[in-house]
């Protein structure tokens, strides 16, 4: 006989699944994550569309992209900030999106944890790497053999 | 075999069962056994409203309500019970509101009320707005609200547990006048867990029967497939009488051919009935309140129109419910569900087309006899300690020979509450009655018989034949011939029933098996109804004998009581038919003397 | 617990399929982004390395891939706006289907000029030489 | 009070088609039912049943015909047979519907009609699933009125507008068509699911209720409203026409509004 007052006896029979929904965490993390997806999404539209436009549409499009093109852009703090924001927002947005997807499809707690650990490490690495590249980037590296941007003074 | 012990066991989780559970659950260790998940109970299908003389929109009082109930029931109502119900109605509605029921509101924010058949101001002067409602889903809201409150109070449900037997013991006792009789006592119930096929015994100090109606004895019915009169059947088999079983209500407006109900609220909101000539024929039958006459009268008038050739449709077998003069917005606000039924199931657009309707078997006025504290009676006045009944399964009797619309939702709330309180109170003072030896023996035998019987007869076919003959011969119009025809048919069905084969031999969710068991109850009840109808050689309320078209107060102003009695053999008289002994019980009068019933 | 019978595909409607699309495009973009940051990082290694890798983006196969990626981003972006509208605009849920047609229309309107321009560049440069 | 309706005419001209009318058409249908009975086999199988049905018949009638005439072991829940009790949600031609509300003539009867149990809940036998997880979620959102104010002697007042505010979500019959159509629920069975949110909404927006905050707190959980990906399967599946996704959006906004 069931001791739990509310559960019908069916819930302790062998064939019934166990309900392990943990008690409310009390934090609003999921809410902020949800909100962040929407806010970052709106900003990303501007950033990404701008990025795509400049890189693929203006001038010779993708064929214009080379080291010089990139260096030329990052010499300008405007594009540095632009790309930095894009990097962070897109990565956080994407990471959180994939986290949701893992929550959806990985049923077992262990699998969830593993997948999410891999995800977070990968994302952290990429974000750090990307940030470093943008800030420590030297548009006129010494010893370069190919087309540097025109503002580089030949050493 | 598992044995559970509870103070109170409630059988059924419809409106009556859950209303009782809310009371009992807070006072005593209570379990609710139900063959359906609580929210599947047929209370949820009720549409129109629940009456109480709140006087929120116009002058009204409980005394008028009592009068209407008594008159509506053609004076066969026990007036003390009707007074209790009408008086406690107000509190019952307020209780529900406080539990959260979302009633429709008046502009002042009070509970809104509307008209309903047979409810009048000042003893029949004019229709009164008395029905509290939530659109046309009042029953749905009641069922949900009660379930919600059961969740709130941690009521213990055993879902999909079919109760198949009531455990009683009999002891010799002496009456005040010195006569010795057998006193029944309640020990518990035997139930069948649908999921596993296991039997569970519930020992209890109090048992409340709240298993609802038995509409499935008829073919055309507004009742659910699961309303097979189990509670009545179980009680009857245990030697408990059934009261007033000949009175079955046929609701005028079922969707033609299907039986799905279109609430009387439609007529309350202004819809009218028309025959094939477009005539508003109720003007002829009930000049004062016309389409809002009580159900028995309207149903009979409709059937009469069809009989006299003024029916509509290819077979001229239905009449029309006309809402086309109502504003679509008004219809949407007040009658959204039933108009959707018309669209979904008949493809008729009620805004512009009248809807085909015909009477549908709706409500059992009779049932397990109880007194006003819902204690079950084993004869005219001996109470069975610890056994209670409320709702459609019971006969208090507040409905007499014809229930007024909205009085059943009221009944389940008023008497459900009373049952819960009384059962808990009794359980807290009483001791457990020792279980009889081999408590499950009868149930095991019943199930074994059904499982092993191998004559090839199909349950569904017997049921269909039963329903067909009931529809043809026991419906709105009855004669001695038609009733005898039913009895002859039932004798054949019973023989066939002894030769059924159940295909599903498994243990898990064996609904095939249970349908066979339910058919057993249906056959039993159909027989009781017919025998009682044959016996009542008069016309009153829902019972209309063409061979005795007048009400006969001299001989029949009394309740009928049917007992299972194997000693009674077939004699072709109205008094006794194989296995059923009929008795009578006096009607309780307090303030209203019988008058001619005119509207 | 008894084993569940394997389910067949649920026949969802616009709402479900647009979500499937949103999810797939989201993952695709994310994976691309990981790669894209990595390849761009090569600018830190050496201009040569970067230019060599970026050169790979310039053949027509990659050009088509880029078109696909842009298509994914544009759909994801516009549908993202649709989701936001559903979340915050009172009538959003009611008009979600119409909004989706709007998304697809905008997507087409954006993609056509883009494709014309992009594919011309990709193919003219490839065939025409630099 | 509402305005008095004009007394309708005693007699009207009926349109011709109401006096006459043709026969109800009959047609043959094949039901393709996913059968499962662990007492026999752990595997589920498809089984076809063919029968002749009428124009007004529903899928439930066809299932009954099978059970009553062909194979008594076919098992499914049903009660009211007109869409108000919520017993018979099942997947018909790939979508969640109530069998008793789905007319055969509205389906493509030239092909077999597939009937399967709803997704995401453990199947017990044929079309019967274990509803316990579903009701568990329902119970967890405090689906009952909580009022801390002093009890008035009569009813609490509520304006018609306040009553209207939550009307849509009072219609729920707990059939689970929505929750079991939700892609998130299929894969993450811990998600509260749309039905629980609908029933929380019913109280959150009831002006008489005082526990809205607690319910919002419950649904702010990681398995709460934020799990919804607005796929609208629930709204499309709801036999009561409840605007579920809209209701979920309103709950999300209520949580946001309270935190920010
Ligand atoms: C379509 C329709 C509309 C109606 N409209 C109105 C209206 O507007 N106003 C009004 O006043 N009345 C109305 N009525 C009548 C009223 O709704 C019913 O009489 C009333 O709801 C009956 O309630 P109940 O609790 O007795 O039974 P039910 O609600 O039928 O509940 C029966 C319960 O018993 C359980 N049960 C049955 N057998 C067993 C068993 N063997 N073992 C265990 N459990 C069992 C079932 O699971 C169920 O939970 C309407 C009825 C119908 C059919
Ligand atoms: C261009 C502008 C973008 C907008 C407007 C946008 C918008 C959104 C929104 C609103 C969501 C939430 C969906 C939901 O909760 O159901 C979302 C989810 C997601 N986004 Fe974006 N996004 C954009 C760009 C990106 C980018 C660049 C990436 C990849 C890095 C990305 C990856 C994802 C992923 C993986 C999800 C999760 C999908 C899911 O849960 O089904 N998005 N996006
Ligand atoms: S919201 Fe609709 S689909 Fe969901 S359980 Fe309630 S009635 Fe069923
Ligand atoms: S189907 Fe599921 S994802 Fe949201 S809109 Fe409905 S709850
Ligand atoms: S049987 Fe009640 S909803 Fe279908």
Instruction: Output the number of helix runs of chain A.
Output: 4
> Radius of gyration of chain A in whole Å, from Cα?
24 Å
Number of domains of chain B: 3
Cα(first) to Cα(last) distance of chain B is 57 Å
Which topology of chain A does CATH recognise? Answer: 3 helical TM bundles of succinate and fumarate reductases
Profile the largest sheet of chain B: 8 strands, mixed
Query: What oligomeric assembly is this protein in?
Result: heterotetramer
Radius of gyration of chain B using CA atoms only: 23 Å
Low-pLDDT segments of chain B: none
For the residues shown, what is the average pLDDT of chain A? 78
- Report the strand count of chain B: 21
Summarize the helix and strand pattern of chain A as letters: HHHH
What do you see in this structure?
The complex is a heterotetramer of chains A (155), B (599), C (130) and D (260). Chain A has 155 residues and is mainly α. Chain A is built from four helices and no strands. Chain A has a single domain, classed as Fumarate reductase/succinate dehydrogenase, transmembrane subunit (3 helical TM bundles of succinate and fumarate reductases, Up-down Bundle), CATH 1.20.1300.10. Chain B folds into three domains: 254 residues, FAD/NAD(P)-binding domain (3-Layer(bba) Sandwich); 108 residues, Alpha-Beta Complex (Flavocytochrome C3, Chain A, domain 1), CATH 3.90.700; 146 residues, Methane Monooxygenase Hydroxylase, Chain G, domain 1 (Up-down Bundle). With 130 residues, chain C is mostly helical. Helix content of chain C is 80%, strand content 0%. Chain C starts with 13 loop residues before the first helix and ends with a helix. Chain D folds into two domains: 103 residues, Roll (Ubiquitin-like (UB roll)), CATH 3.10.20; 110 residues, Fumarate Reductase Iron-sulfur Protein, Chain B, domain 2. Chain D is built from nine helices and seven strands, in the order H-E-E-H-E-E-E-E-E-H-H-H-H-H-H-H. In chain D, strand 3 and strand 4 form a beta hairpin. Chains in contact: A-B, A-C, A-D, B-D, C-D. The site of iron/sulfur cluster (SF4) has 17 residues of chain D, from helix 6.
């Amino acid at each position: 006989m069931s001791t739990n007052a509310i559960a019908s006896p069916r819930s302790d029979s062998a064939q019934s699944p166990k309900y392990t929904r943990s008690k409310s965490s009390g934090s609003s993390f999921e809410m902020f994550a949800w909100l962040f997806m929407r806010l970052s999404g709106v900003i990303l539209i501007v950033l990404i569309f701008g990025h795509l436009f400049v890189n693929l549409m203006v001038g010779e499009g993708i064929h214009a992209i080379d080291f010089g093109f990139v260096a030329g852009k990052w010499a300008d703090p405007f594009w540095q900030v632009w790309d930095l924001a894009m990097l962070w927002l897109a990565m956080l947005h994407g990471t959180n999106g994939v986290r949701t997807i893992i929550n959806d499809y990985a049923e077992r707690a262990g699998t969830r944890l593993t997948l999410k650990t891999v995800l977070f490490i990968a994302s952290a690495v990429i974000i750090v790497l990307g940030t470093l590249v943008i800030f420590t980037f030297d548009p006129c590296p010494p010893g370069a053999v190919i087309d540097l941007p025109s503002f580089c003074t030949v050493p | 075999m598992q044995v559970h012990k509870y103070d109170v066991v409630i059988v059924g989780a419809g409106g009556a069962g859950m209303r009782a559970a809310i009371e009992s659950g807070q006072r005593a260790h209570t379990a609710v056994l139900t063959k359906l998940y609580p929210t599947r109970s047929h209370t949820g299908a009720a549409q129109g409203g629940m009456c109480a003389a709140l006087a929120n929109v116009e002058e009204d009082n409980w005394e008028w309500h009592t009068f209407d109930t008594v008159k509506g029931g053609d004076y066969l109502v026990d007036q003390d019970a009707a007074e209790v119900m009408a008086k406690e109605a107000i509190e019952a509605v307020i209780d529900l509101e406080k539990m959260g029921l979302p009633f429709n509101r008046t502009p002042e924010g009070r509970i809104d009320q509307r008209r309903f058949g047979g409810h009048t101001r000042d003893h029949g002067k004019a229709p009164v707005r008395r029905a509290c409602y939530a659109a046309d889903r009042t029953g749905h809201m009641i069922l949900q609200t009660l379930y919600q409150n059961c969740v709130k109070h941690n009521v213990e449900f055993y879902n999909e547990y079919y109760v198949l037997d009531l455990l009683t013991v009999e002891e010799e006792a002496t009456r005040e006048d010195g006569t010795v009789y057998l006193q029944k006592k309640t020990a518990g119930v035997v139930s069948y867990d649908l999921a596993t096929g296991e039997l569970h015994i519930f020992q209890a100090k109090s048992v409340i029967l709240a298993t609802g109606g038995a509409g499935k004895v008829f073919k055309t019915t507004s009742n659910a497939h699961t309303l097979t009169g189990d509670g009545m059947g179980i009680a009857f088999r245990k030697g408990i009488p059934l009261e007033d079983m000949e009175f079955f209500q046929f609701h005028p407006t079922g969707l033609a051919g299907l039986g799905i109900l279109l609430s009387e609220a439609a007529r309350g909101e202004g819809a009218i009935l028309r025959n094939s000539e477009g005539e508003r024929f109720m003007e002829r039958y009930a000049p004062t309140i016309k389409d809002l006459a009580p159900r028995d009268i309207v149903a009979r008038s409709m059937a009469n129109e069809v009989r006299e050739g003024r029916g509509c449709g290819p077979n001229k077998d239905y009449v029309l419910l006309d809402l086309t003069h109502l504003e679509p917005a008004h219809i949407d606000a007040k009658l959204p569900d039933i108009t959707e039924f018309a669209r979904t199931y008949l493809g008729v657009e009620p805004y512009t087309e009248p809807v085909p309707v015909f009477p549908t078997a709706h409500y059992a006025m009779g049932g397990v006899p109880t007194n006003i504290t819902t204690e079950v009676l084993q004869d005219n006045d001996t109470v069975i300690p610890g056994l209670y009944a409320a709702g459609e399964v019971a006969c208090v009797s507040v409905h007499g020979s014809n229930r007024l619309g909205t009085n059943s939702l009221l009944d389940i709330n008023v008497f459900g509450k009373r049952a819960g309180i009384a059962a808990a109170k009794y359980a807290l003072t009483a001791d457990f009655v020792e279980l009889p030896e081999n408590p499950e023996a009868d149930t095991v035998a019943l199930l074994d018989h059904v499982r092993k019987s191998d004559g090839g007869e199909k349950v569904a076919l017997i049921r269909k034949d039963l329903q067909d003959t009931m529809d043809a011969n026991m419906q709105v119009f009855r004669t001695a011939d038609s009733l005898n025809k039913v009895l002859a048919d039932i004798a054949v069905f019973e023989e066939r029933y002894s030769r059924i084969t159940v295909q599903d031999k498994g243990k898990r969710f064996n609904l095939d098996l249970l349908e066979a068991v339910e058919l057993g109850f249906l056959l039993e009840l159909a027989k009781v109804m017919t025998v009682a109808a044959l016996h009542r050689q008069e016309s009153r309320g829902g019972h209309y004998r063409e061979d005795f078209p007048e009400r006969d107060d001299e001989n029949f102003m009394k309740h009928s009581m049917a007992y299972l009695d194997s000693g009674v053999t077939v004699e072709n008289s109205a008094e006794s038919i194989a296995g059923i002994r009929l008795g009578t019980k006096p009607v309780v009068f307090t303030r209203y003397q019988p008058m001619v019933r005119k509207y | 617990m008894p084993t569940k019978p394997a389910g067949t595909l649920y026949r969802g409607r616009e709402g479900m399929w647009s979500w499937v699309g949103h999810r797939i495009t989201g993952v695709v973009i994310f994976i691309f982004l990981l790669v894209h940051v990595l390849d761009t990082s090569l600018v830190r290694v050496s201009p040569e390395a970067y230019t060599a890798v970026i050169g790979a983006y310039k053949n027509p196969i990659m050009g088509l891939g880029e078109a696909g990626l842009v298509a994914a981003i544009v759909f994801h972006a516009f549908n993202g706006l649709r989701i936001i509208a559903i979340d915050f605009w009172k009538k959003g849920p009611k008009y979600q289907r119409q909004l989706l047609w709007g998304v697809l229309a905008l997507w087409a309107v954006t993609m056509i000029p883009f494709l014309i321009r992009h594919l011309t560049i990709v193919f003219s440069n490839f065939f025409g030489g630099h | 009070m509402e305005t008095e309706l004009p007394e309708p005419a005693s007699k009207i001209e009926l349109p011709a088609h109401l006096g006459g009318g043709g026969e109800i058409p009959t047609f043959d249908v094949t039901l393709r039912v996913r059968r499962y009975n662990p007492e026999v086999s752990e595997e589920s199988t498809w089984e076809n049943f063919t029968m002749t049905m009428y124009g007004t018949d529903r899928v439930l009638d066809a299932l009954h015909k099978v059970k009553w005439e062909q194979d008594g072991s076919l098992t499914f829940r049903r009660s009211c047979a007109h869409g108000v009790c919520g017993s018979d949600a099942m997947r018909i031609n790939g979508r969640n519907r109530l069998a008793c509300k789905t007319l055969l003539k509205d389906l493509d009867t030239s092909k077999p009609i597939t009937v399967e149990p709803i997704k995401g809940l453990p199947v017990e036998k044929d079309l019967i699933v274990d509803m316990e997880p579903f009701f568990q979620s329902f119970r967890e959102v405090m689906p009952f009125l909580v009022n801390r104010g002093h009890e008035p002697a009569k009813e609490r007042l509520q304006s018609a507008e306040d009553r209207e505010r939550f009307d849509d979500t009072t219609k729920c019959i707990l059939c689970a068509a929505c929750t079991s159509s939700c892609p998130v629920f299929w894969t993450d069975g811990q998600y509260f699911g749309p039905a629980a949110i609908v029933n929380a909404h019913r109280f959150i927006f009831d002006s008489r209720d005082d526990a809205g905050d607690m319910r919002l707190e419950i649904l702010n959980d990681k398995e709460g409203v934020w799990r919804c990906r607005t796929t609208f399967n629930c709204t499309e599946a709801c036999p009561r026409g409840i605007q579920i996704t809209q209701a979920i959006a309103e709950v999300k906004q209520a949580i946001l509004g309270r935190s920010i």
